[in-house]
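Hi team,

Below is the intake form for Polysaccharide export protein EpsE from Rhodoferax mekongensis. Please confirm the fields before the structure is written into the shared record.

FORM ID: S-0412
PROTEIN: Polysaccharide export protein EpsE
ORGANISM: Rhodoferax mekongensis
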Amino acid sequence: MKKLFTLFAAGLLALCSMVTHAQDGKSDYPLGAGDTIRVQVFQNPDLTIETRVSESGIITYPLIGAVPLGGLSVAAAEKKIADALQTGGFIQKPQVNIALIQIRGNQVSVLGQVARPGRFPLETVNTRLSDMLANAGGATAAGDDVVVVTGIRDGKAFRKEIDIPSIFLDNKAQDNLLLQGGDTIYVHRAPVFFIYGEVQRPGSFRIERDMTIMQALAQGGGPNARGSEKRLRLHRKLPNGTVQQIEPQLTDAVQANDVLYVKESIF
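The structure came back. Fields below:
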């Protein structure tokens, strides 16, 4: 009867552990440097410890010593410790439970033109770029459509520019990157153009996708009573630093930092 009760209790603990992980969504969270965890073994209170995952992804555990847990999910880490206890002959059928006390490892930094810049934990192994941008509140009105993701992949520096709307508008799901701990997402300020002269609202405006000179003119409210859309001059800075002056067509594309001048009508 005692043996039956023990087996039942062990099974109940395992079931509770599974339910807890399912509820808190942390069973597939990849442990990383700086995470603080509590490790418990059923009916072995002397093996309960709270510890921090080292920079090399290792914890030191009673009886079995150094255990590499970095990158493992919580469930996989529980199994690794249980297997080590059983293989070492310390406990026959150990029931191990790991609880996340504080998440510091596997964080992603979101910087620039977002509603809530900061560091956010990777709570699951399949967190994608769009998920993390949503955590940060998305790009502000001044934010660019293109974001820069940097980090480390296969031991090498990684950098990629990603057009966020194209992920959904052009079905480029492959650009919705799987993030890793230590990644940084940077949302730059959207490019702008400038318009002045005989217009209703001179000033600087965000360049919308595929914007033309005609649309840029409309952003400035169009020519005023003295201006003419047929008398335009565009100042465009070239890669070599020189400024080119051209008479644009209304269908020409607007580029970052273009300066559009609307001249006074000759009539």
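SUMMARY LINE: The chain has a mean pLDDT of 88.

Thanks, M.
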